[in-house]
Write a structure and sequence with these properties.
Oligomer: single chain
CATH class: Alpha Beta
Helix content: 10-25%
Strand order of the largest sheet: 3-4-5-7-8-9
CATH architecture: 3-Layer(aba) Sandwich
Order of helices and strands: EEHEEEEHEHEEHEE
Strand content: 25-35%
Distance between the termini: 55 Å
Largest sheet: 6 strands, mixed
Number of helices: 4
């Protein structure tokens, strides 16, 4: 099944043999096929979660994502409690990628994601296995900032959606990125955060293609 994706990537900087420093934008090569995008993203998410957890000697509890047939849950995964399902939901607020604003209000962005989580859950009765949801971006403008993430965490803690857990993932390159736990989270992580206090908060996600790396020579 075909699937459009946005632009994600970063600037790779290198020091050349002559002492100059150069950089270039490297785009993440997303497939045009939905199943391949989802599997690539799930693998990168699990790899990234393990990278962080391995620092303390731990391992992420989800592994081995496998595509399911069409009209089934997106992926099957392995957990210490047995096989489970992983549903995928791109962070895409219904705006064409090339029309997306780089500036957005965190509160409203989180409200959109809250609605997306519940809309996804409404498709299912409980499947008899654990069911997880991964929110992920393929476009730089739709990356989830910390304030929007905290709003979403607060609301889902109160809503208690169908999913056993909800995660989010923003890619940095084709193999790794930033994975975060959205629901459930420990109460102490939320502290006294109040979404209503950040209604006016806004964020800008910069387009990596507009960054400029100047060539410089190292001092010898």
């Amino acid at each position: 099944m075909g699937k459009p994706t946005g632009f994600s990537g970063g600037i790779r900087v290198q020091v050349n043999s002559d002492g100059t420093v150069t950089g270039a934008v490297e785009q993440i090569p997303f497939s045009k096929e939905k199943e391949e995008v989802e599997l690539m993203t799930a693998l990168a998410f699990i790899r990234s979660m393990n990278r962080e957890m391995n620092k303390t000697g731990d391992t992420f509890f989800i592994s081995d994502p496998r595509p399911n047939p069409e009209n089934d849950f997106d992926l099957s995964v392995t957990t210490p409690r047995g096989d489970a399902y992983l549903e995928m939901r791109e962070i895409q607020p219904g705006i064409p990628y090339d029309k997306a604003e780089t500036r957005f209000f965190s509160y409203e962005f989180a409200r959109m994601l809250r609605a997306a989580v519940h809309a996804k859950a409404e498709h299912y009765a409980h499947p008899g296995r654990e069911l997880f949801l991964l929110l992920y971006s393929t476009h730089y403008a739709f990356r989830l900032n910390e304030t929007a993430l905290m709003c979403l965490r607060c609301w889902l803690a109160a809503d208690k959606p169908l999913f056993n857990a909800v995660f989010c993932y923003d890619p940095l390159d084709a193999t790794e990125g930033v994975g975060r736990w959205v629901y459930p989270v420990p109460a102490e992580l939320m502290g006294d955060f109040d979404p209503e206090a950040v209604r006016g908060h806004w964020c800008i996600n910069l387009d990596p293609r507009k960054g400029v790396i100047e060539t410089t020579r190292k001092e010898v």
